[in-house]
Known about the structure:
Elements: E1 6-9, E2 12-15, H1 27-37, H2 39-48, E3 54-58, H3 59-64, H4 66-78, H5 80-93, H6 103-107, E4 110-114, E5 133-144, E6 147-153, E7 155-157, E8 167-168, E9 190-192, E10 198-208, E11 222-228, E12 240-254, E13 257-273, H7 285-295, H8 300-305, H9 316-327, E14 332-333, E15 339-340, E16 346-350, H10 356-366, E17 370-374, H11 380-383, E18 385-389, E19 397-401, H12 403-406, E20 411-415, H13 422-425, H14 428-433, E21 436-441, E22 444-449, E23 453-458, H15 471-474, H16 479-482, E24 487-491, H17 497-522, H18 530-537, H19 546-559, E25 563-564, H20 566-580, H21 593-609, E26 614-615, H22 617-634, E27 636-637, E28 642-643, H23 646-649, H24 654-670, E29 676-678, H25 679-688, H26 693-705, E30 709-710, E31 716-719
Parallel strand pairs: 3-4, 11-13, 16-23, 16-24, 17-20, 20-23, 25-26
Antiparallel strand pairs: 1-2, 5-10, 5-12, 5-19, 6-8, 6-10, 7-9, 10-11, 12-13, 14-15, 18-19, 21-22, 27-28, 29-31, 30-31
Amino acid sequence: MRTATINKINGEKRVAEAEDVEITDRVGDWVKFLKKFYRKQMGEIAREYPHKRSLSIDYKQLEKWGKPGLTLADELLRTPGKTIDDVKEAIKQNNLIFGKDEEEKAEAINIRFNNLPKKIAARDIRAHHINTFVTVEGILRKTTEVRPRLTSAVFRCLQCGTLTPTYAQHYGKFQEPYRPCTQCERQTKMELVPKLSTFVDTQKLRIQESPEGLRGGEQPQTLDVDVTDDLTGMVAPGDRVVVNGILRSIQRVNQGNKSTLFDIYLECNSIEIAEKEFEEVSIDEEEEKAILGLAADPELYYKICHSIAPTIYGNDDVKEAIAIVLFGGIPKEMPDGSHLRGDIHMLLVGDPGIAKSQILRYVIKLSPRGIYTSGKSSTSAGLTATAVKDEFGDGRWTLEAGALVLADMGIAAVDEMDKMAKEDRSALHEAMEQQSISVAKAGITATLRSRCALLGAANPKLGRFDEYAPIAEQINMPPSLLSRFDLVFILTDKPNPALDRAIGEHILKSHRVGELIQHHRKHPIEGVDDEYIQRELSPVQPEIEPKLFRKYIAYAKRNSFPMLSEEAKETLIEYYLNLRNLADSNKPVPVTARQLEALVRLAEGSARIRLAKTIEQSDAERVIRIVDTCLRQVAYDAETGSFDIDKWVSGTTKRSRDLIRAIKEVIREVGDESGTAQVENVMEALVNEGHARDDVKKRIEDLLREGIAFEPRRGLIKLLVR
């Protein structure tokens, strides 16, 4: 059996080219294999050529075909170029697809191999992998446009018009003949004849390691992939892919001087797109048994919630909501083609120093697929997607995926959302509701998928949260974006002796346990064993190990698709109608249909935690309690004693809108012929009607700031449109 040899010369390693090694002719074995397993597929190619021109061979099927199959499979990995040539030769010599007079068609058939068992990470690629067949898994970060590449050229002599024989073109540099014309024997310039030359579609991809497989602090590494023919245009940035191909090397050139260093790229043979959610998360039989055991545990919800950021004391409502966000609702494709999202968006707003960022980071650690980014350092392109012109695309425009696209089918955690620039925040609107990102730039028009839950964190504008002011006024975020969050939690830091003591003790206990572990590791303490350490760890130890938790979420998303029971449906609709009935023509709108959809998504997530087939009444009651907590924090008007959804989604309560309307009417009434009124007269009239002077002053400032009114002179006010 042939093996790659490594010779050490002058302290340097030289990897023998796989194609240099002599191997036994396997054409006969390939003929037997193809006739036995691939007659149907070859018949389809013969009928549908040139629309179908690739023969896909299953590597695992090849391995199972006895001893000859194992030999062929091994030779594919070690000498892929020769193996692919052998398969083509088997097809041509024995007319397996086309007749004797159709050799040109047989030559154009692509031989693809897929379903290889062993995958290699981009960071683990080494010199001995060059010229071998490898499989790399990751996220597609960049793609170029599809463009034709010259593979064989025909030239015409400019003097006598004689055509040259086909002139092979290799990857990279354009090759043209420099010898004299064979007919007129003149050293003349030749011109390319495109009509007689051969071109192939080509595209360049950049694949990046999946972030969930990295250790803390590691930067994901990338690998460039060269894609040709019918594989081009198959994938888009953000897709999870498995790329099979031959690892090639290309020598670096510095200012015309050849370097001893080589760059590597993957010559793509086949691409497999991950269609199933969390396909990259493997769950063995023992783990599945543990997951099903957990699902049947009566204390499941307690264990799930106490496995989320256990070092952070309290915030039980927030942790329960995060658990439901992690499992998510069910995305739905309706008969009319419309899409209803299943992902749940959640925002944490609160005072500094209450562990919002720690919660976000822990959630990303638990999610089978997640991306963490900070709004302060993120641009709209970094969050969504953009078209760029850089060295990667050889001067062409390339499409590059941002954080929300890379988090597709997972969770994107965006910290410090209030610090984002206005134009960067606007990019989130489409991503959150439509779960797609549209790019239209430099002739590239594309729509990328961003089917992810968004978990955001923000601080109030003035440092600390004012529970009496509308949330939209306190966060540097437009109401249109705020309204897209299914849940908004306000986390305040108020002095409370009992709670402060409990938090303080929990923090000190966490530090003591950490100190104990470090001290015992460096200087073993007498009487302290693993059992003692585990006992001390119990208050900050998650009920479910993070590794199993991640697999539990992946298992639930793959296998659990609960349906609403009649009891749950009635409970949800009754809650919704009860809130709506609080309103009449003169009262604020308590909730809208958007909150009802959020209730359904949350109920689906609650049932998924149990791996249930049905959404029970208990799920409906649980999510009603969570939503009610949120509404009381962000949509409750303490002065009127009622819910007002506009306080959340628009930042202006109905009471404020009514006051603004009254101010405009008074300006028209007390103003002169030109519509100009004394500010003091306007305020006096409204105070006499029973409005608070401070409220009137604030709403007048709102009118001036929003351009509805202006000041012709100090102390005067005039409406822009009367």
